[in-house]
Amino acid sequence: MLLLIIGNFATSLSDVAVKLLNGEISTFQYIFIRQLFSALVICPLWLKQSKQQRKLYSPKLHLFRAHLIVIGSGCMVVAITHLTLATANAVFYAAPLVMLPLSILLLSEKPTIQRSASTLLGFIGVIVVLRPSEFQWAAIFALATTLTLALFNITARKLPEQQTVVSTLFWTSLLSLPVSASLAFFYWTPISTIHLLLILASAALVLTYNGLVVTAYQRAPASSIAVAENSGLVFVTLFGVIWFDEVPDILTVLGIFMIILPLLPWKSLLKLRLCSNQSSERQKSIIE
What we know:
Elements: H1 2-21, H2 27-47, H3 51-54, H4 59-82, H5 85-92, H6 95-107, H7 113-130, H8 138-156, H9 165-175, H10 177-186, H11 193-219, H12 222-225, H13 231-244, H14 250-260, H15 266-287
Helix pairs in contact: 1-11, 1-13, 2-4, 2-9, 2-10, 2-11, 4-8, 4-9, 5-8, 5-13, 5-14, 6-8, 7-14
C-alpha cells in the first residue's frame, strides 16, 4: 500500500510538471519526447531478457495500444493545461467505471447489478464535477483521456501470456514513436531547457509510478491495496491548492467522492474491519 501511495505521489507530480508547461510547447513535442525517453529507459531491461521474451507478439494489438497512448497523452496535456488538476484528474479516475460498458461490448462480460449501480454513481459524480451548465471545451479532452485509459486497460486482457511486462512497455513505447515523431516534426517549436526538464521529469515520474504499481501488486492481492490508488486524487487536489491556487468548490469535492466511492474495495475493507474487531475482542477476553 505504501508503494502505491508513493507511486500516486509520483504521478501527481508528473501532472504538476505538465501543468507548469502551461501549453507553451506543442503537445506533440511532449508526447514524442516522453515516449522516446520511456523507450530508452526500458530498452536495457528489454535487452536483458531472452530472445523469446523480447519477441513482439500480437503486433496489431500492440500498435493499437501504442496509438491509444499517443491520443490519451495528447488529450491529457490539453485537459490538465486548461482545467484544474482536481477536475481533470477526477474525470481521469473514472476510467475504471468506463471499463464496465467496454467490457460488455468488447469482452461480452455480464456485470452484476451492484457493479452497474456503482458505475452509475461514478458517472453521476463525473457529471457533478464537470457540471454541464459550466461545461468547458477542455472537458471533452479529459473525457477522451478517460476513454483511452479504459480501452488501454481493457485491451491489456487480450495481450499474449508469453509477452512480459517489460516487453509490453518497450514495444508500446517504441511503436508510438513514428506517429508521435511525425506530428512533433510538423508542430515543432523552440524548446527551452526548463521545458525539456519538465517533460523528462514527467516521463521519469510516470515510469516510477508504473514500476511501483507492478511491484506493489506483485507483493499483495489487488483487492487489499487498491484503495491506495485513490490517494492520487488527494495529492493532485492539494498540489492544485498549494501551487496553482485551485481551491475546489463544494460540488467538485462532492463529485470526487461520488467517483471514488464505487472504486473502493468495500468487501476487503469490511473483512478487515471484522478481523480487527475479532482480534480486539480476543485481546479483551484475555485481559479479563
